[in-house]
Amino acid sequence: MDDRFKQQLAQAREHYLRQEYAEAEPLLRALLARSQDHADVHNMLGVVHHQRGEFDDARRCFEAALTQNPRYSEAALNLAVTCNELGRYSEARKVYSTLTERTRSEQRLDRFTRGKLANLHAQVAHAYASVEHYPNAAEEYRRALELCPDFGDLRTRLGQVLRELGDHNGAVREFRQAIAQDSRYVPAYIALGVAHFAAGERAEAEKAWQGALAQDPDNRSAQCYLRTLKALATPSVLPPEDQDAPSDDFVVSLAEEAAPSEAPHST
Q1: In terms of Cα–Cα distance, which of 170, 221, 220, 215 is closest to 193?
Q2: The total number of structural domains that make up the chain
Q3: How many other C-beta atoms can be found within 10 angstroms of the C-beta atom of residue 22?
Q4: Which residues of 44-62 are buried (b: 16+ CB within 10 A; e: fewer)?
Q5: Rounded to the nearest 5°, which phi and psi values hold at 151?
Q6: Per-residue model confidence (pLDDT) at position 171
Q7: Nearest-angstrom CA–CA distance, 204 and 210
């Protein structure tokens, strides 16, 4: 690497770190015209493409970076994110699974990297859940939780998926664990109440929703559900033969309202 190359690389990196991508791009291209051997140059140009929404070009750059340095964790993460955004979920899984396995064998993952990988698994899980492939969704949420077991929102989503699979006990277990890990996380209380309500366990549902109000006295969902329980307890609301269990349509409406936001967990 001669002095001119070093100078251009320093200038390109300075623009890149300032997010001045229009200024960084011609310098990065000039560097690659001289040499294809520098993984960080490929990676930086990939980020430039990614920021513009040019995901195919970004993917090629990140792949080139990994060709030069297969152990380049940042490029691997960027490639996984890009593949995910292109809808190439199996490729994304392969990339970050390889990264996870390699890093685990070398050193303990730092929290930031674990969070990024967990969110990638969560994005794939949501994609599966959105097309009702619940077994695959559950598998991806479990992989995310192996990396970040304290992510209560992901644990709550796993519980929702298990409930869709008919695993009531598994769903309740995940909701309760989310609450045990963070007693202030209201969506887990709401989801726990819905699970109990769907199973006809109204006393347990009331307890869970009261728990939500203990954390957030103004929570409208918990207030609404508790009013509904009170109304259902009134004999005149339903015919005698229908009073023991809620209707399927009503349970579905509660479950949809109780589902946590599907935005990736912020680290």
Answers
A1: 221
A2: 1
A3: 9
A4: bbbbbbbeeeebebbbbbb
A5: -80, 95
A6: 92
A7: 10
Within 49-131, strands assigned E span: none
Asked whether residue 83 is assigned to any structural domain, the reply reads yes
Instruction: Please give the torsion angle defined by the CA atoms of residues 267, 43, 82 and 54, in that order, rounded to the nearest 10 degrees.
Output: 120
Q: Match 């970076």 to its residue by tokens.
A: 65
Quick one: tokens of 23?
């200024």
For residues 167 and 98, what is the distance between their CA atoms, to the nearest angstrom?
Answer: 31
Structure token pair of residue 159:
């519980």
pLDDT digits (tens, 9 = 90+) for 20-52: 899 999 999 999 999 898 999 999 999 999 999
Per the listing, tokens 């599966």 go with 128
| 176 falls within a domain | no
| Structure confidence by residue, pLDDT tens digits, 104-153 | 654 456 778 888 889 999 999 998 888 888 899 999 999 999 889 889 99
Domain assignment of residue 102, given as a range: 8-108
Query: Is residue 99 assigned to a domain?
Result: yes
Q: What angle do CA 77, 82, 85 make, to 5 degrees?
A: 130
